[in-house]
Amino acid sequence: MTKRAFGIDIGGSGIKGAPVHLGKGKLAEDRVRLETPQPSTPDAVADTVAELISSFDIEDDMPVGVTFPAVIQEGVALTAANVDKSWIGTDVDALLTERTGHDVFVVNDADAAGIAEMEFGAGRHSTGVVQVFTLGTGVGSATFVDGRLVPNTELGHLFLNSDAARAYEDAEKYMASSVKENEDLDWEPWAERLQEFFAHIEFIFSPTRIIVGGGVSKKHKKFLPLLDLKAEILPAELRNEAGIIGAAVLAHREEKALRKAAKKAAERGV
Q: Does residue 39 have a cis peptide bond before it, meaning omega lies within 30 degrees of 0?
């Protein structure tokens, strides 16, 4: 049987999901998208996630990975971006597992995109420190050391002392792709802001490879060649499906680890 897991990407406006072929790193079926309920409270979103899963004919024991726009620690949302603030402190893993009847594993949305790129995209076969950045309304980040995720890095919230008028402001408020659009910046001046940010990142982390995703990465030839970094800098390859694929990969890994731990415990008679 084809190795599959289910991936769901929760965003502020839409909730998207599909089964994922884990051998190929591709959606096994066409994805379904439902509107994110407003207000996007835990109960309302959980019902929508359950509805989405039920629209597919999948195995009862298929694990489900879910991206969530928050810092996630042991399945609990510590923040909430673009969703209702009542999510803060919610055990997202437990809520969605109970509501869907599947084993659910939740991950920060940028971390999920990073997992997908490391497994199937521009980060595969990488060693050392590799960082994935998604440029959009804000800036998401995922950091890996020899392929292992360092979760919840949130590097878009670094402070940049760019000039007197913008001293010590969140980096994403200075160089996200939404800022380029809102300030009507040409590629060159926007690339100067990216250079400042990524040079700062490079100084702190010394990455061997930086991967840039988000919708603007489709036009990577207009700005990535303008950057001058020691690290190799590449466009993301999976783009819009990265969250779903990364969440499914994570779910499969976590489910496998739990089964292995349970087997060892049984062998010890615990």
A: yes
> Is there a contact between 122 and 207 (Cβ–Cβ < 8 Å)?
no
pLDDT of 90 strictly over 90 = yes
Contact 249, 116 (CB under 8 A): yes
In the three-class reduction of DSSP (H, G, I as helix; E, B as strand; rest coil), residue 201 is classed as helix
Q: Which domains does the chain have, with CATH numbers?
A: 4-108 (3.30.420.40), 122-237 (3.30.420.40)
| Joined tokens for residue 121 | 């995209």
Task: Report residue 126: phi and psi, to 5°.
Answer: -80, 150
* pTM of this structure: 0.93
pLDDT tens digits for range 212-265: 999 999 999 999 999 999 999 999 999 889 999 999 999 999 998 888 887 787
Q: Which neighbouring-strand residues pair with 170?
A: 159
Q: Which residues contact 172 (CB under 8 A, 6 or more apart)?
A: 138, 139, 156, 157, 179
